Amino acid sequence: MNDLIIxxxxxxxxxxxxxxxxxxxxxxxxxxxxxxxxSPVSTLALxxxxxxxxxxxxxxxxxxxxxxxxxxxxxQLWGEPLLAQLDGPLSRLVGDAKTHPGYHVSTLDTPSGSxxxxxxxxxxxxxxxxxxxDLTARKQQESFYRNFIHNVSHELKTxxxxxxxxxxxxxxxxxNEDARQTSQRIAAQEAIxxxxxxxxxxxxxxxxxxxxxxxxxxxxxxxVVEDAILQLSDLAEERNITIGLKCEHPLPRLMADRDRLxxxxxxLLDNGIKYNREGGKVTVDIHTDEHDVMIKVADTGEGIPLQxxxxxxEKLYRVDRRNGRYVEGSGLGLSIVQYIVDKHxxxxxxxxxxxxxxxxxxxxxxxxxxxxxxx
Length: 375
Ligand code: ADP
What we know:
By secondary structure, the protein is an alpha+beta fold. The protein has helices at 2-36, 43-49, 72-78, 88-99, 135-170, 177-208, 221-238, 258-274, 306-309, 333-343, and strands at 53-58, 66-70, 104-109, 115-122, 127-134, 216-219, 242-247, 254-257, 281-288, 292-299, 347-353, 357-365. It has a 5-stranded antiparallel beta sheet, with helices on both faces. The protein has a 5-stranded mixed beta sheet with strand order 7-9-10-12-11, covered by helices on one side. 25% of the residues are buried. Adenosine-5'-diphosphate (ADP) is lined by residues 267, 271-272, 275, 299, 301-304, 312, 317-319, 329-335, 358.
């Protein structure tokens, strides 16, 4: 577990440092171009394109540094329009960068009262680069990672402890046959839960990679829904749940990544089955309006208490079951759903009543049908 924390710590560090290194690299590249020949890229265009708050200042020994270029993010982070000449702490940072080589990182209070981290580095004489980052946002990100690592560790540890306990019990020669079978069943169940959790963690981290490619084509939504229903039909039968499909015709096709869309439907149907009552129903209803295609997945299950509804899309969030019934799951299914739907320009809503049922409504934008062929 310590290795995991060190790994995430390093990842965290690299993720936070990366944008700064990218900015410095981009500005260095531009200066290199500029030195050799007329650059096809203007300073302002480059500064505007960078994601952090950027100021390039020109320092002269006699006067306050002047702003050569700055982007809108810099002014937004600073909280008020930047003057043509820098004074106060920003001017001091330019001076520090001039007199001492290397990086200078300082925390500044802005005139509007928020906290910024400002990195300054001397570029080609007489220019200095200032990179402004919102420390409040960074702190939130750090705290999110800390909580996430804590929750993942906890979710991994619980099944592992149960498995260890039952494996130890199985080595007891005095254990009777019933107890042996119970231990074997629980250990196997927990191993499945562990695998499911790790699979979902891997899937979510793969989806969230910046270079993950959603392969969008025109897809036949009804066929995708039918595929997803077929995949879950054994589970539904096992639990005596009926799945129904109502679909408006003709249905416009969707511009979507077929496999990811199917994943969304599988996760919603799987929940509709898992959290349902014996003999219950799950209904998928697809209809359209002028702008969107709406997919409703409704069940007749235990419902979600109002106070939990705002949290169920958070990573690893699971509702405490009052009826004590254990339902296997990772608390990641809906985070995956929301992420994929978001990447398709859509949104998801939940309506639920305890002991009556839950309806998830996905809205995905309709597309111009004249595009590419269906997969
Ligand atoms: P899990 O793997 O735990 O099902 P999800 O992210 O899919 O994780 O869902 C988060 C939580 O939301 C679940 O643990 C469950 O408490 C609640 N939930 C999701 N879908 C339903 C549903 N259809 N009916 C009742 N509760 C649901």
